[in-house]
Design brief:
4-stranded antiparallel sheet; disordered N terminus; 22 strands; mainly beta; Methylamine Dehydrogenase, Chain H
Length: 317
């Protein structure tokens, strides 16, 4: 027993040292000073995919993952006619119907989520469309219960956003815009510029488009770009009455009535009131104070719903 004591002490010391180093590696995401990170509990760290709900317009936030596997990381969230749809890594697609309180899995026919990454979603009536990373589009005609892959697909592209506009389904990819006239069954390149498209939004008869640091309006094969330049990538386009809002990774907020001229909260020429509580709060400087510490370069996507405001933490710039 005495002979094994040095070995036991060595193993305990090594385990403690490795644990401390691992903690430093994780917490280093949270602090500029690595030594300060050693004094922070790992429980403060939120990984990408955390999902929260606020029922008091952003004053308090609670976990919103009942029914999801403990290791599921949320990727994309879609609110369609009161029903929520959520894609996750490793565990696939989940839904939360309007009058239920627990997520449940759906998605017969979708590829194995252990080998495929699900991306953007869009819906119109019972038709749903989902993009996968580098593996094209999948479509459903029964609100996500069953899926199939169309023959004429978008191949070898990362589809970053989907949007219905004037009866046409548009897909923003890493190399321009594609379109479908039959709910995603057939696709063709829209023509024009081949640039990464970060967001699309149909608003007041216009199709607003966001790229890395710019905003514009799609006109056929052409895009009319606004002179506004964002400091960081546009992460979300939000409709609110007569306005469309653009939110960036660094919490910049822009708004426009036509997608061409964009104002900021510091612009005295834009004083018209916004009737939507969430976008009005964003315009006035609000940003959700979630009950966790966010690693650097993580963004928060806000989704308004009848249940309240939802916040989805996402990795990336």
């Amino acid at each position: 027993m005495c002979r094994s004591l040095p070995l036991v002490l060595f193993l305990l010391f090594t385990t403690s040292l490795l644990a401390q180093q691992a903690r430093l590696t994780i917490d280093d995401l949270l602090a500029d000073n690595p030594m300060d990170a050693l004094n922070r509990p790992i429980s403060e760290l939120v990984m990408p995919g955390a999902l929260f709900l606020s029922s008091d317009q952003g004053k308090t936030w609670t976990d919103f993952t009942d029914g999801l596997p403990a290791d599921a990381l949320s990727l994309q969230l879609l609110d369609h006619e009161g029903d929520l749809f959520l894609t996750t890594s490793m565990h696939g697609l989940f839904t939360l119907p309007e009058n239920e309180c627990e997520w449940r899995p759906i998605g017969e026919g979708l590829p194995d989520p252990r080998h495929f990454t699900y991306g953007a979603m869009e819906a119109h009536g019972d038709h749903m469309v989902m993009a996968t990373f580098q593996h094209g589009i999948f479509i459903s005609d029964d609100r996500g219960a069953h899926w199939r892959r169309p023959v004429l697909n978008i191949s070898n592209q990362q589809v970053m956003c989907l949007e219905f506009h004037d009866g046409v389904l548009y897909a923003g990819t890493g190399a321009g815009i594609w379109q479908s006239h039959d709910y995603g069954r057939n696709w063709q390149f829209n023509g024009g510029e081949m640039f990464p498209v970060y967001g699309l939004l149909s608003h007041n008869g216009r199709l607003v488009v966001a790229q890395q640091n710019g905003l514009g309006v799609v006109n056929g094969k052409d895009i009319s770009w606004s002179p506004v330049t964002t400091q960081t990538a546009v992460t979300q386009l939000l409709p609110a009455g007569d306005f469309v809002y653009a939110v960036t990774a660094s919490h910049e907020v822009f708004r426009s009535e036509n997608g061409g001229a964009w104002a900021t909260p510091d612009d005295n020429s834009s004083t018209q009131a916004d009737p939507d509580p969430m976008t009005r709060a964003l315009w006035n400087g609000f940003w959700p104070a979630l009950p966790v510490k966010l690693p650097k370069n993580y963004s928060t996507r806000l989704v308004p719903d009848a249940r309240g405001w939802m916040a989805l933490v996402r990795g990336g710039c």
